[in-house]
Amino acid sequence: MRSFIKKSRRERLLYELTTPEKRYRGLDRFCHQSKDLIDPKKVILSGDDMERSPEFLRFVREHDETCLVLSPDFYPNGRSMPLSDATEQALMCPDAVLVIGGTFAVIFGEAMKGGREKYLLSEGKQ
């Protein structure tokens, strides 16, 4: 996750995400400011309809490993599940969801009028 966050924002955000008492605040900030916090060089897909794109579906099939799910929503927060299940959970959840895999992360922003920000980030070219 560290490499997906802009260097200038990394230390504070990682502190919030890894400190149980601060996690909700960090997730809330992250879901409202994703575009400003992530390293744009790591984004391989984005868009409010990203989960339907052939590239994303292929990525999920090829990387269906166990991932950590973080969200301000109680139900998916802190659970580990395959990427395919985590994507389904994120799509059903109206709150922001962060799915963290070994070499990738998927961000689903909070559902809002006009769409939902979604990003697939990866360590290297896919």
Characterize the largest beta sheet: strand count, sense, and whether it forms a barrel: 6 strands, antiparallel
Radius of gyration: 13 Å
**Span between termini:** 17 Å
Strand content: 15-25%
Low-confidence stretches: none
SSE run: HHEHEEHEEE
Report strand order across the widest sheet. 1-6-5-4-2-3
- What form results from the Cα inertia axes? globular
Strand elements, count: 6
Mean pLDDT: 88
What structural class results from the helix and strand content?
A: alpha+beta
- How many DSSP H or I helices? 4
Helix content: 25-40%
Describe what this molecule looks like in 3D.
The structure is a single chain. This protein has 126 residues and is α+β, with helices and mostly antiparallel strands. It has 4 helices and 6 strands. The protein has a 6-stranded antiparallel β-sheet, sandwiched between helices. Strand 4 and strand 5 (104-108) form a beta hairpin. It is globular. The model has no long low-confidence stretch (mean pLDDT 88).
Kindly summarize this structure in a few lines.
It contains four helices and six strands, in the order ααβαββαβββ. With 126 residues, the protein is α+β, with helices and mostly antiparallel strands. The longest helix has 15 residues, at 23-37.
Key structural traits:
126 residues; globular; 37% helix; six-stranded antiparallel beta sheet; 6 strands; alpha+beta
